[in-house]
Every structure is written in structure tokens, then in C-alpha cells.
Amino acid sequence: MALIAVALALTTLFQNSVLRDLDDRLQAVALTVIATAERDGDGRVEPSQPPLDSRYNRAFQGRYWQINEIVDESVGEVIGESESLLDEVIPVEADAFSLALQNFGQPIAYNIKGPDDQTLRIIMQAIELPGDDGRVLVLAAEDRRPADAEVRRFAVVSIIIFLVFGVALSAGVIVQVRIGLAPIYKMRDAVAEVREGRAERVEGDYPVELQPLGSELNSLLDHSREVVDRARTHVGNLAHALKTPIAVLLNESRNSEGELASVVQRQTTTMSRQVDHHLRRARAAAHAKAFGARTEVDSVIDDLSRTLSRIYSREAKTIDAYTADGLVFRGERQDLEEMIGNLADNACKWASGKIRVAGTFGADGVIKISVEDDGPGMSQEQMELALQRGVRLDEEAPGTGLGLSIVADLARVYGGELELSTSDLGGLAATLLLPGAHR
Questions:
Q1: 53 and 18 in one domain?
Q2: CATH number for the domain including 127?
Q3: Residue 181, in any domain of the structure
Q4: Does some domain include residue 204?
Q5: What is the C-alpha separation between 152 and 172, in angstroms, rounded?
């Protein structure tokens, strides 16, 4: 925009300069005519020494002079003209004539259409001839089209020059920015390597201005790992502290008889399940906040499919597994195994004979892992109840009622979700939407 403004300003200045030169030249012609003008016996006024330029003597060559008589504050008849006008007359603009009378003796410039449809630049001056009582109007005119063409040529050349300069300047800025910001791009890639799990620290040779940033990032990564390690330690300590007393209570209740022992056994079993559930969730929350955790989805699905196929082979149930190439979960393997394992085991329990597990890419870096079966499926109301912790839709089937709620909680910890729907196999379709990473 600045270059365009400069080009326009230079063109305007050049145009004003050309017009000033043209006006100066016309004023010199008008003064020559005025200085040598003489009235003859017929009342006509002619300069004794007309302008030397031959174009004033050839018809319609673009240069003219003309003398009009002033009668009662109005323009009278032509009493003198150059031979180049032939039988034509230079029009006198009313506003310019009034201005010339108000500024008597001063040159007035204006533009008007003249002979041969030429655009004329005119210098007009109202004067009194020496030794003559009458007032006259002297006009010197020149075709301004050559001057306008010169201005246009200048404008075109200026635009081309500034356009080339602008392109070169833009290219220079782009190169300068790319070179100047190359270390920042390098650091961005290094941080991405850490986030994707391909590196543990931000490494590289950076300018002195970026070295403090790299050090702070590495300190932040170290602090994050320290926090995660502390959380894992606390979770392990809590598990050990709770499981031992619960196991003691459970063993004592099993070795005893009576209603109290039965109540203690049921409640301690429930406590053990709840502790396991919340410890898993706490561990997953610590993993989710860690940088660089990543798990290959295909290996998890393959391992679980083989294991469950062996377990349910006697029931003639088959598991079809498919994983897209390069599918990576941004999280811990143990948590992914927990989620897919719960869903796949649940599908195997209820399937009539076929289970399908598929891992595919979703939108915006999300991965989709679906587990489907050909079992009885669920109604919409049952799907909503199934995600609530501890709810069992069939009390006769083995289980704790925590499977789907555990999967939903783990998915939410990682910023994902669990969706239940009807499978095209006829049974239930459970779909995990989880954050993915590039391989």
C-alpha cells in the first residue's frame, strides 16, 4: 500500500510539473503576443513579431493564439488569431473570463475542447494595449494530449518499477522471515517430537535468545514427569494400604458363618471393586497429563483379539479385528488395554457368534475404536443406564456392573468419550473416540 501511494504521489507530482512547464510556455507566448501587438486601420490586432514556432502557422498543429475584444464586460469578436486556427475559434469559458476580469492583467489557466476536437490547455489574460483605449483578451493555447501521454508513460513505468520492487521486497521479507524464524520452527518441531513421544526433551542448538525458552520447556517437562511419578507412587501406596485390610476382612468373612459375615463379605467385595475402579482412574489421570505418552493401537487390538479368541473358542465365537495403518493413541498402553479389553470382553459375553473390533482415523486428530457384536443389543434407555457406575442390566450374568462406566471414565480423562449405538451386526456397537498421534 505504501508503494502504491508513493507511485501515485510521484505521478501526481510529475503531472503538476508537466502542466507548470506547459503553462510557463503558454504564458511566454501570450507575453510575446502582448508585447508586439499593434492595431491596424481595420481594427484588427496583430503582433509585429509572432511566435517563431512554425506550428502557429500550420492548420490545427496544436498551438494557437487568439485575441478577443472586450465589450461591456463581455467577450467580443475575434480581432486577431494565429494562422493555425484557420477558420476556427478558441472557445472562451465564462467562469474563466469572469476570473480574468477580476484579476485584470493576471494569467488564468483552464482546459477546454478546441479545434479538431483537441483538448487545449489555455492561458488567458485580460489587458489594455499600450496607446489604445480598448481592452482585449489574449489567449495562448496548446494541445495538452502530448503532455497527458507523457504523464501516462511515466505512470506506467512507475507502476512497473514499483511492482517489480514490491515483488522483490516481498520475496526478501519472506526469505528474511523464514531464515530469522527458522530456530523457532526448529523448536516447534522439537516440542512436537516430545508431545508425540519421539523424544523426551527439547534438544538442539538454538540462538542465545531462545536458549532460556528451551531450558524452561525442559524444566517444565521434568516437573511434569516428577508430578506423574509422585502420583503413581501415591496411587501404589494407597492401593497397598487399602487392599491389605480389605483382603483381611474378606478372608475373615469367608471363614465365618452367619448374617454378619455375609454382609461383611458383600461390602468388602464392593469396596475392593470401588477401590480398583478409582485407582485405575487416578492412574489414568496422571498418565493423561504426561507429555509424550503414545501407544500403537494395532498391537493392543491384536493381542486382545488373540487372547479373547482362545478364551471363547469353545463357545464358537469369532473375533474379526481391523486396524488402520499408523493408528496411534496418545496415552498409556495399559489404559488403552483396559478400555478395549472391557468392551471386547463384554461383547464376547453377549455375542451369539461374531464380534468385530475396528480402529480407524476420525476427524481433527481423533481415532475411533469400535467394538460390535451380534448379540441381543440394548434399547436406548438401557444404553443410558449401562454407562452408570455399578448398574447391571442382567444380575445373572457375571460381572461387577463397572465395565462400561470404567471405559467411559477413562475415555473422559483423556478428553475422549464412549458412544453406544446399534450395530449393523444386530447387537451393540460401542465406539471409543480418543486423542490420536501421528506415527
A1: yes
A2: 3.30.450.20
A3: no
A4: no
A5: 30
Alpha helices (H) along 37-114: 94-102
Same domain, yes or no: 50 and 132 = yes
Q: Model pTM?
A: 0.46
Q: In angstroms, rounded to a whole number, what is the distance separating the alpha carbons of residues 337 and 295?
A: 10
Q: Is residue 168 part of a domain?
A: no
Phi, psi of 56 (to 5 degrees): -75, -10
pLDDT per residue rounded down to tens, the chain (439 residues): 888 888 889 999 999 999 999 999 999 998 888 888 888 777 788 887 888 888 888 888 889 988 888 888 888 888 888 888 888 888 888 888 889 888 888 999 999 888 878 889 999 999 887 766 678 899 999 998 999 999 999 999 988 999 999 999 999 999 998 888 888 888 888 888 887 767 778 888 888 888 888 888 889 888 887 887 777 777 767 766 777 787 778 787 877 777 888 888 878 877 777 777 666 666 665 555 555 567 888 999 999 998 888 888 888 888 889 898 888 888 888 888 888 988 998 888 888 889 999 999 888 778 899 999 998 888 888 887 777 654 554 444 444 445 677 788 888 888 888 888 888 888 899 999 988 865 4
Query: In terms of residue numbers, what domain contains 231?
Result: 211-288
Separation of alpha carbons 215 and 198, rounded Å: 19
Percent helix / strand / coil, the chain, rounded to 5: 55, 20, 25
